[in-house]
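Q: Two folds, back to back.
A: First:
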Amino acid sequence: MNFVVKYSEKWSDLFRSPESSIPDPNTLCTRIQTLEDCWVVLTYLHLKRRNLNVFISDRFIPEEICVVSSPDLGIRDLTFNSFMVGCRGDGSKPVLCDMAIVQNRANVESAADIFIPHWPQPGLIPRLKERGSTIENVVFNGYEINLYAPFCSSEFQRELENLGVKLVINGSPKNGPVMWHDYSTNDRAISF
């Protein structure tokens, strides 16, 4: 089985590493950010660390099973020569795959859709016990574009400030490493 990583430059170390030195996913927690990272890379790592016969590639291998994030399936890749397993996140239904892995039971729409629960975020750091019942930080771990729009409004921000609370949006790699795994100072979390 081949796990196709279309953005291989981000994971070039996996392509160069000898198979005997596959890293523990918990050591890669700041790098796990995209659909490809969560479904393709993490699954490859978990299976490879169990000594299963899986490979990582930056292209589709003809006449083989190829697992890829569904937004990365393209007709120009000649995917029809392979058995394509598309990993579908919260986006649209993949049409160029033979089978789709879905992370939401509501997306099982045909016999070709298989529900598999999402991998847990690697390297989770729990909230500090010393914070007790303190509520200062309400945190959204994700990209701001995915946050419910009213939570981004100045009115909502002002109401939180009146309560002595701030909204922290942890989702921009340009502000430093994304720390979606670190809940140490998160007093409340916003999720969808």
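A: Second:
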Amino acid sequence: MAQLILFNKPYGVLSQFTDRGTQTERPTLSAYIDVPNVYPAGRLDRDSEGLLLLTDDGKLQAEISNPKYKMAKTYLVQVEGDIVEDRLDQLRRGVKLKDGITRPADVQTISPPSLWPRNPPVRFRKTVADNWLQMTIREGKNRQVRRMTAAVGYPTLRLVRKAIGQWQLDDLASGEWRALTL
């Protein structure tokens, strides 16, 4: 039976078990998960937080991470600036990036979610508004959500993945994981 691990990746942790090629060691998955023969199904940038799936099943790993399967990934996105519906409509239609036009995203404004504190905290500026979006994409370009929001004038301040397909972050605290048998 396949094993699937749901991990709430903290800010600053690499989505891999080793950190090769740098002189300064950065935190990796090995500091949190001591389960043999599981590998990340996709990636989550070092400066992003939230749900990361790991599995020992190669077919499942491909279904989760390969863009051809169009598995939905849902994010909570704190952005800088006042929300204008026309800009959200651009995200809903797809945004032109250097590597092509993105697929349309499902996006809406949300109230600030109840999340764990981030270390270091997100910078706060009295003169610049910030707002929260919930955004679902069905592809996986490098740093896609950050690049999409920036392309419409909303720099991302904090990015938390809350769901991948049917799997949800739910009540997992930052740095915690839960194993499922499929």
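Q: And?
A: The longest helix spans residues 85-93.
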